[in-house]
Design a protein that fits this description.
Helix 3 (72-89) packs parallel to helix 4 and helix 5 (154-163) packs across helix 7. The chain has a seven-stranded parallel beta sheet with strand order 3-2-1-4-5-6-11, with helices on both faces. Strand 1, helix 1 and strand 2 (26-31) form a beta-alpha-beta unit. The longest helix has 18 residues, at 72-89. It contains nine helices and 13 strands. By secondary structure, the protein is an alpha/beta fold.
Length: 268
């Protein structure tokens, strides 16, 4: 399979590129901000550049892992341009979305629940989903959560920076998510690229916990006591962002061969 992975210099994209190459696929990874060896440059905000690269490579499948939380054009417009180009050339598309599209509630969200973003990044991800469905109806949209696994993860880095005093702030005790191991996510994305599933699929770990509890688990791997990990309430601080966001992963368990592990197993 000829595979194009956008965002190949990122945590998830990099793991996917390596996994797909190890599986024998012909893989091209792209990068905008990092000129890493083995990756080709691409600014997904440049529609003409997206079209040129896909016309040149003619991939069988495209997996879009590119995003920038503070950049609507990368997250939303880039997804739209990639979806349109993949559809035009007959390439399969797997788009990575986020639980940030939801506002939060105690009950789990299913794939049929409509996005209700409450902050700009969530709105950009929701807009990207809409654009992908409109431009490429056969695409798979993988909604995921916090990505963990090793200290290359932003979640690990933040917890350790706060616990060691390298950064100021707190990890929220009232933000609940279902973290997923980066290797599990990469394997699931490759499986989706190789398959024919269409529509939204929730691809997250089965274990829900707060951002603060996740930070405590990460710190414990480094021998750092729990009381060194600062915690606090996002609501009390007036932070506008999703609170409890649980993803129902029942469908993923039937669609995927990849087993999605919980935090306890991943960080054991």
């Amino acid at each position: 399979m000829r595979l194009l992975v956008t965002g190949g210099s990122g945590y998830t994209g990099g793991r996917l590129v390596a996994l797909a190459r190890a599986a024998g696929h012909d893989v091209t990874g792209t990068s905008h901000s990092a000129h890493a060896e083995g990756l080709v440059p691409l600014d997904v905000r440049d529609r003409a550049a997206v079209d040129r690269l896909i016309d040149e490579l003619r991939p069988d499948a495209v997996v879009n892992t590119a995003y920038v939380q503070s950049d609507w054009a990368v997250t939303a417009l880039g997804a739209a341009y990639l979806a349109a180009a993949a559809a035009r050339t007959g390439a399969r598309l797997v788009h990575v979305s986020s639980d940030a599209v939801f506002k939060g509630r105690p009950a789990p969200y299913t794939e049929d629940d409509l996005p209700e973003p409450v902050y700009p990044y969530g709105a950009a991800k929701a807009a990207a989903e809409t654009a992908v469905v409109a431009a490429h109806p056969d695409a798979a949209i993988a909604r995921t959560s916090l990505i963990i696994g090793d200290d290359g993860s932003k979640q690990h880095q933040l917890a350790l920076d706060l616990a060691t005093g390298r950064a100021d702030g707190v990890l929220f005790t009232d933000h609940v998510r279902q973290p997923i191991a980066v290797d599990d996510l990469a394997a699931a994305l490759l499986e989706l690229a190789e398959g024919d599933f269409r529509g939204v699929l929730h691809v997250a770990g089965p274990e829900a916990l707060s951002r603060h509890e996740l930070g405590v688990r990460v710190a414990a791997r480094h021998g750092i006591p729990a009381d060194r990990v600062p915690g606090g309430s996002a609501i009390e601080r007036g932070i506008i962002s999703p609170t409890e966001v649980r993803l129902d992963v029942t469908l993923a368990a039937t669609v995927l061969k990849t087993r999605l592990r919980g935090v306890t197993e991943v960080l054991a």
